[in-house]
Amino acid sequence: MKKLNNLKFILFALTVGFALASCTKGFEAKNQNPYSLSSLDPALLFTNAEVGQGIGSYEGEQTISQQTVNAYDLGATEGFNFNKNNDNYNNGRWNAEYGTPLKNIEQILFTIKGDATHANLNNMARILRVYCYMTLVDNYGDVPYSQAGKAYTGNILNPAYDKMSDIYGSLYSELHTAVPALSNTNEYVGADIFFGGTGGNVNTQVTEWKRFGYSLMLRLGMRYSKLDQAKAQSIAQEAFAGGVMQSTADNVYVGYNAVNTNGVTGGIRTTNPYYYYIAQPFATQLTSTNDPRTKYIAGVYANPNVVNGTLPDTITSHQFGFPVGYDQTSVQTAPGYRGQNVNKNAGQNYSQPNYNVMFSATAPFFIITHAQTQLLLAEAAFRGWITGGLTAAQYYNAGVQAAMDDFKLYPNAAAIPLATENSYLAQPSVVYNAANALKLINTQYWIASFSNGPETWANVRRSGFPALSPNLYNNLLGGDFVHRMAYPVSESSNNSANYQAAVASMGGSDNLTARVFWDK
């Protein structure tokens, strides 16, 4: 699989293309530079849309899901760990999806509409578009959809919000038609960083994108598990029959290098690293089961604020998570408080992210994985929603092993030996059993989805597992969880009428405890 093949050149070409195009905007034809770029290959826009997925913050969805903690409540940093509605973190996901990815995708679809020479690109763009809008609905609820991205193509500057359940229905329809329409008799998209690149071929690319699309359809179908089980079963069975991911080679992810670095890890790695810790519920899950992934996720640094180029202590028994519901001062009253770090007058004596591996500048960003897909199949099999496949236990074991195998893609990590994986799976608290199937499956999904915050948070809400205790910091949510992100402040000021209509549609309040339609 090729990730970021020639990406530096492609992004340079995009930058130059936009710059040159802007230089002649509004000029008469006789004044145009004959050497400027007058059009742009839509496939290059697609590259940009793919790369744009690796954006976000570990202070968002992972904090809500109690995997990471920003322990320092210092005004600008106050957010979900402190049950507060902070636009710094609310707008991150909104801007990430409506920014480069959807702008480029909508432009692609407009540009190549009806062009048979770009049939595969059209359907690939539609699949990626589904991923973007699923993320937006899962995080916010009602969002602009049918009118979104139409500022240039339709002169719609203030798009209306569509109802979230309607959007999901449309997204399913998109997958239902776009995925099977991919064909190896159509064009090869070399600019595709997921499954394209130099030396690739259309047969492999189409196979991989179909697996991506059907795995995404399975994810979408399982979102209905509490709302409409008949619909969940129907969509899951269709996805399974269509052909989902078969191995970790099918993973869809954005890779990085020393020039093009991971933006999700960038903020916490480079700005006051001592603010950030592994949350106690997540650390306890790892250490209590002697999870071999622990050493790649967590570490104890001699100086909490000096982490780049420093190797942490990764011994499992030395890892302790920061308690949820506390800040840098109140943590001193937490049971078992471990004190400040002795080598620094800032930072606490708790496990931090391992900035050498999972939180490295070159750590990959996973969009959808074989591990996640196997675990969803395990739940679907347990519920009797799919037929003709493996048992729920077999899917469960395969999903856990695939999640461990993913670490071979991280810097400074190595494949976890099969014997170690099997030993982990044999532990009484981990081994599959039907009595605790949903808890086991979805707890493992929580771990497997760690690097993709929107997905880990969505599945915690959907499944109810792991059974986390509410964050009671100042009890600002009345003992409830954060169920959605509030809309960015810019929407209430720049798109006020449509914003107000969306808030009214969702119950009249743009708060953190309102629920998206499938979160019943």
Task: Describe the protein.
By secondary structure, the protein is mainly alpha-helical. The strands form four sheets. The protein has a two-stranded antiparallel sheet with strand order 1-5. The protein is built from 19 helices and eight strands. It is globular and about 65 Å long. 43% of the residues lie in helices and 4% in strands.
What radius of gyration results from the CA coordinates? 23 Å
The largest sheet, given as strand count, sense and whether it forms a barrel, is:
2 strands, antiparallel
Distance from first to last alpha carbon: 39 Å
Low-confidence stretches: 4-38
Q: Based on DSSP secondary structure assignment, what is the total number of beta strands? A: 8
Strand adjacency order, main sheet: 1-5
The portion of residues assigned to helices is: 40-55%
Number of helices: 19
Helix and strand pattern: HHHEHHHEEHHHEHEHHEEEHHHHHHH
- Report the mean per-residue pLDDT as an integer: 91
Percent strand equals under 5%
Structural class: mainly alpha
Basic shape:
globular
Please outline what is shown here:
The protein has 19 helices and eight strands.
Characteristic key phrases:
520 residues; 8 strands; 43% helix; two-stranded antiparallel sheet; two-stranded antiparallel ribbon; mainly alpha
What's the topology here?
Elements: H1 7-23, H2 42-51, H3 61-64, E1 68-70, H4 87-98, H5 100-112, H6 119-140, E2 143-144, E3 161-162, H7 164-181, H8 202-222, H9 229-242, E4 252-254, H10 263-270, E5 276-278, H11 280-288, H12 294-297, E6 298-299, E7 352-353, E8 365-368, H13 370-382, H14 392-405, H15 418-425, H16 437-448, H17 453-463, H18 489-494, H19 496-505
Antiparallel strand pairs: 1-5, 2-3, 4-8, 6-7
Helix pairs in contact: 1-2, 2-5, 4-5, 4-6, 5-6, 6-7, 6-8, 7-8, 8-9, 8-13, 13-14, 13-16, 14-15, 14-16, 16-17
